[in-house]
Amino acid sequence: MSSDLEKVGSERLESGSRSEADRESKRESLEAPGRHSLSRVRSSSIVRIRSNNGHGVADLEEDNATDGTLALNQPQPEKDPFEVAWDGDDDPLALGPLIMSPLSEFIGRRPIYLVSWALFLIWLIPSAVAQNTATMFIARFIDGFAGSSFLSVAGGTVSDVFKRNEIQAPMAIISLSPFIDPIKLRDKARILRKETGDDRWKAPMEKSTKSVAATIGYSLLRPFQLLLFEPMCLLLCIFSALLLGILYLFFGAFPLVFGGNYGFNLWQTGLSFLGIFIGMIICSSTSPVWRRVHTRLVEQNGDTPEPEFRLPSAILGALLCPIGLFIFAWGAFPWVHWIVPIIGSGIFGCGTLLVFTGIFTFLVDAYPHFAASALAANSFTRCVFAAAFPLFGIQMYHKLGYQWGSSLLAFLTVVMIPFPYLFFRYGKQIRKNSRYAK
User: Fold this and answer.
1) 318 CB neighbour count, 10 Å cutoff
2) Distance CA 422, CA 50 (A)
3) β-pair partners for 54
4) Of 176, 260, 308, 380, which residue is least crowded by CB atoms under 10 Å?
């Protein structure tokens, strides 16, 4: 390591007198496999094909393309060998939605967590003591905006710790929550400059001239471009949003079903949600199975991974969701034991988490250059459905009854059953005609 540092330092002192051909030969020698950690940083940055922060929302490359067509359809410029990148076990995937992800690229995740947590707690107080509707709306809006930060960067925080081929299990765990980082790259570049005396080592964000406002502007635009121009992204986002909307609708449906049919009091109604929780826990325990399925599919494909190999869990989950909802619907009679609808809700919870895990990991792999934008589009769609469904849930059950109300929800999920399988079979052909997908 010390010899490498001395060699790089001598390069800097003699760089003024060397010819361009000498520089090129030196760069080629630095890519030799016998080099150690410093050379590995250099070589990995040359072959890296993803965006600067793994799967970032904002493109810090200095071009004017806003739709991603330039980066994907035209030859890529030669990478700067002194651009600092992550290698090996340190490689983070930056996952984030509309606003918080680009902000984290400039200030890091920790400030967002701390500030958002403080605002979330503070604005709970006016929500609790509000005396009128206007105060409640404003306080809840700010509180929800602050709380959304955790959904925004939680997946990215998990992905900071695990490699890309290891995200299946942690993504399953983090998917339970709804119901590093460029700053580190900058610090790494500073350390390299200090140790080597070579000012050419730069993090991507240090070479960018885009402002925070421009970065946020691009990050707000691209998720909607993905929803408009990418049918796979749109349909899978709608599917996951539908499931989350139903999950939130259950918060109003359970008191009706279990209170009205079985006479449950408040704490018993609260315990009835354990069915969904247990179903999700059982689903999380199946992560090793899906890892083996993914490994076997990769081996059968000549050791070439494809994004579609992430979808088998979503295929099974798409079948379990309507089954669970139909059991919940037609088991909700007073003469049927209360455990039957709870079992149905558990099957639905298990299927929901399977779908979420498959869709999230698929979006990361299918849109490697714009994965955070794809997840931002998914987060936006899910939040819209989650906000809308509880508004009509109680009225729907009063109008249609417990059985047909839940059956209506089940029929909606039945419509979505084919899409994970269709994308598993034909996703590769669809991606060939995509302007964003890999």
Assistant:
1) 24
2) 27
3) 51
4) 260
